[in-house]
Design goal:
Protein name (chains A, B): Glutamate decarboxylase
CATH topology of the largest domain in chain A: Aspartate Aminotransferase, domain 2
Number of helices of chain A: 20
Oligomer: homodimer
Number of strands of chain A: 11
CATH superfamily of the largest domain in chain A: Type I PLP-dependent aspartate aminotransferase-like (Major domain)
Strand content of chain A: 5-15%
Radius of gyration of chain A: 26 Å
Strand order of the largest sheet of chain A: 1-7-6-5-4-2-3
Family (chains A, B): Belongs to the group II decarboxylase family.
InterPro entries (chains A, B): Asp_decarboxylase_pyridox (IPR022517), PyrdxlP-dep_de-COase (IPR002129), PyrdxlP-dep_Trfase (IPR015424), PyrdxlP-dep_Trfase_major (IPR015421), PyrdxlP-dep_Trfase_small (IPR015422)
Structural class of chain A: alpha/beta
Keywords (chains A, B): Decarboxylase, Lyase, Pyridoxal phosphate
Cofactor (chains A, B): pyridoxal 5'-phosphate
Helix content of chain A: 40-55%
Chain lengths: ~550, ~550
């Protein structure tokens, strides 16, 4: 630990030192911090082991379930972290890590993060955050304007008003979505006559008062799993989240949506909210937001847009029209830790109307007193860090046109990759990129042809074999450690909506080059040959179909 | 921004640079980071302005609600952050900042935080966190053992089991409490016969199936406001959170608790959970946990302990008996960002039974697949950062005996301060410290005497005047910027449960000295004299009471 003796020991004086004396310039921790600050990519390439160690093996290093009775020196422990943790962590910022929504970070955010953490503000209240409170309100205002584009008057009226809130910062999209639906539920079941509102009397009383037999939130079958969680926690039950079918482009069918709403109403179930998705997690598709908005007005539903992924597209004047209609949403989720390139833990929910959040407002005695500007009176979370500072800094340093370049580059890279996949004989593009996501699979031309002409039974059988191959390739590629794509299951209409495993690619890292994309395909092609039995079976099945 | 030209401009090449080239050693950002790393306290003393600027003034710097169209140089923006944000932030680690639960951090956590942020893992799934997943499970296991002390066999069976979970990491105590009550609600309204469980069918169906007229969670009137939020979001309604009266020491009255439960049951309201508080936010009091546990067994209630603050006391073999009974809880909330000295954003909820969380388990296609060890299948939040690494490191470097010293020192400091206050003629200790929190107020001996003998009407009047003075002193002291205590409202039985404003003090910063405590009182005494009219009124009222 802190003392320099051979055996670490604990005294109150030595403890005080860790609060007052920083690590010296020669300490392991300082050196590692420096190396990583100078060239993160190189540092991680050197320290993360290339070939994946099985999780079972890694777990052995994390098996001891007691808090140590003996302190460790900072340097010793840092070395231990390097050997056991960092070496088996995931290089999420690698240009060839294109499987998930976690990407590279701008360098300046790392020292800024350290400053943010050292300041250790708590944004739940002004007394522990002071200037961070107006800063967070401003960031919410900026993103509100990005979505809703109200005039100066609007923002000077509401942005810093104690009684109002343009949204809430939160740890991520899940909390943002829950918050939006919480607000929507409470507004749908508000006080009326003697009934004091669902927030006071609860859901059972509310249902009896309003005479509903159930509540529903509608979203396309491609909606994020957090919405199911929201439906559970808010008391609607997972069945209260009604999945609406999508078209061939993974977008909600407005007609099916309308029909479902009418059906629900007939059964005396209140459809209080519809969620439009702007950038589905699996395919990056964008629902027809304008049409959803119309339906919501017609049926008096809260219109929420889950733009956790796609929201940042609004930064690009070239592509923001893809999200047309979002400005009609009552609430919008945006994750800054996705395409705004902020470290993990920066979600936001925005509300069109500055008084929408009144339905979830709460107060306490020692903080959040009536009339105070404490942010905590309108957040689901309590204590929160000063992450807003990182979003603020990134928006000033990168600026809107900078983000535009990043967004445009990602979308264009996805188009390039889609084109590249289509040119290959042995790959199939399963979902076209709308944003910078696409899905595809490895399937030799002969096999694809067989699948096309196969009878239903045969098709299911052959498709299952191809799924097996997809899973094999994806796992093997991940374990080899050179590049990473994720996988998911889709039901493409082109293949009779059969369960289809696909490679899923997210192209948000500005450092991912065209060459990397070419080599990802090349590697997958080679891996496919490493399952000779499965390949032989697939080819034989295909042949028997073609020859029949 | 990133280019070195006089006018910052944006090109894709310049953007790539911010992802690949760190700030140089001479940049403002690097220099600030260095200064702050070398001596945080001095840095903040130099940069945070001494006298508080009114919030209205600060807001002027954060009034612009548009995302900038022009990029800024990193150095320029850093200077801007220093001038407008850091200078008006709160020095939460100052030894004289004793008003809230945010304290100093050990130095080694700052570089470690930077490493954690640079790695940018996402703990929702193994594919973006690998070794961080077993690490987080181990940290949960360690804290589980601290509370429940199960044997090695237990932890080797469950700690890394894909189908089980000893708890969940989360952004803070609020999410931890909501998670605990969510689990409790779902277990209380589980599937039975044709009913598929509240998580599937929702609360309305559940109530009809079970035939309840309402649901309730019971907690003492000193329970944290997050519980009210939980009751709202979970659909019980705030009225479903039933406040039970406390004794003179701010602890729940077990008899009153039993009575309330019986009453609720008579009205066909299901009391599915009781929350015991181990360290109330306002006074640091600990409920009689053993007695609550018995009552919970008798009435088949989930027993949750909110030990967000007090849980760390278990680290001390000298004081852990204060929390006796916590090992009987079904679930426990602990915040590592409180008395475990971790930066903001490290909450945890632990469950005694490894399968308790099954009732909130959820899956998706692209992650959290059945049988996977992805942590996200048992968390309320989705994407999350690798904060667990900081808890892990702190537990190894400080160790249990180190935490014991810190906890003991805080409790003993509070005893010292309580003693010091009691010795003063013009101060009154309102709540004795059980942990390291206490409350008191400034009230000259004559005034206190008058209050004692006053008739009810007079007492209310005089007490209100004293409240006014308390508020004045607290605000003034905060604005002067030398030291900070918070304030809250209690209803002490000693004063007929009158609304009583008090100074609230949290003594968790190991750097807070006895001298600082002496000077806090001295400063308050002086400030009191700066309200001569109010003081005169108080004295005159007292005199008229005494002379009557």
């Amino acid at each position: 630990m802190i003392t320099k003796h051979k055996t670490a020991n604990v005294s109150f004086e030595s403890l005080l030192r860790i609060f007052t004396v920083p690590e010296g310039p020669d300490s392991t921790l300082t050196k590692i911090e420096e190396k990583l600050s100078q060239n993160l990519n190189q540092f991680l390439r050197e320290h993360i082991v290339a070939e994946e160690k099985p999780l079972k093996e890694i777990e052995k290093d994390f098996a001891f379930a007691s808090i140590p009775e003996k302190p460790e020196f900072v340097s010793d422990h840092t070395q231990h972290l390097l050997d056991t943790l960092v070496s088996h962590s995931v290089h999420t910022s690698a240009p060839s890590f294109i499987g998930h929504m976690t990407s590279a970070l701008p360098y300046f955010l790392m020292p800024l993060s350290k400053i943010m953490i050292a300041l250790n503000q708590n944004l739940v209240k002004i007394e522990t955050s002071k200037a961070f409170t107006p800063l967070e309100r401003q960031v919410l205002g900026m993103l509100h304007r990005l979505v809703y584009n109200q005039d100066d008057h609007f923002y000077s009226n509401w942005m810093h008003s104690a009684q109002h809130s343009l949204g809430a910062f939160c740890s991520g999209g899940t909390i943002a979505n829950i918050t939006a639906l919480w607000v929507a539920r409470n507004n749908a079941l508000k006080a009326q006559g003697k009934f004091q509102g669902v927030e006071k009397e609860g859901l059972y009383s509310a249902m009896k008062h309003y005479g509903y037999q159930g509540l529903a939130v509608l979203v396309s079958e491609r909606g994020h799993y957090s919405l199911k969680k929201s439906a559970d926690i808010l008391g609607l039950g997972q069945q209260g989240l009604v999945a609406v079918k999508t078209d061939a482009n993974n977008r909600i069918c407005p007609q099916a949506l309308s029909q479902k709403i009418v059906e629900l109403k007939k059964n005396n179930i209140k459809p209080f909210a519809v969620v439009g998705v702007a950038g589905t997690t699996e395919t990056g598709s964008i629902d027809p937001l304008c049409q959803i908005a119309e339906i919501c007005i017609e049926h008096d539903c809260h219109f929420h847009v889950d733009a956790a992924w796609g929201g940042a597209t609004l930064m690009s004047n070239n592509y923001r029209q893809l999200l047309k209609g979002i400005e009609q949403a009552d609430s919008v989720t945006i994750d800054a830790h996705k395409q705004l390139y902020i470290p993990m833990g920066a979600g936001m929910v925005l509300f069109k109307h500055p008084d929408a959040m009144k339905s979830i407002e709460h107060h306490a005695q020692y903080i959040l007193r009536m009339g105070s500007k404490d942010l905590g009176s309108h957040t689901l979370e309590g204590s929160r860090s000063g992450m807003a500072m990182l979003v603020y800094a990134a928006m000033h340093i990168i600026s809107r046109p900078g983000y535009e370049l990043l967004i445009d580059a990602s979308i264009e890279k996805a188009k390039f990759f889609a084109e590249l996949i289509s040119q290959q004989d042995d790959f199939e593009l399963v979902s076209e990129p709308e944003l910078c996501l696409l899905t595809y699979r490895y399937i030799p031309a002969k096999v694809r042809k067989a699948l096309e002409i196969a009878l239903p039974e045969q098709r299911i059988q052959l498709n299952e074999l191809v799924n097996e191959l997809t899973q094999f390739i994806q796992k093997c590629q991940r374990e080899t450690g050179k590049s990473f794509v994720s996988r998911t299951r889709l039901n493409p209409s082109r293949w009779d909506r059969l369960n289809t495993l696909v490679f899923r690619v997210v192209l948000a890292n500005p450092l991912t080059s065209h060459d990397i994309l070419r080599s990802v395909l090349e590697e997958q092609r080679i891996i496919a040959q490493q399952a000779p039995n499965l390949m032989a079976k697939i080819l034989a099945t295909s042949q028997s179909i073609t020859e029949a």
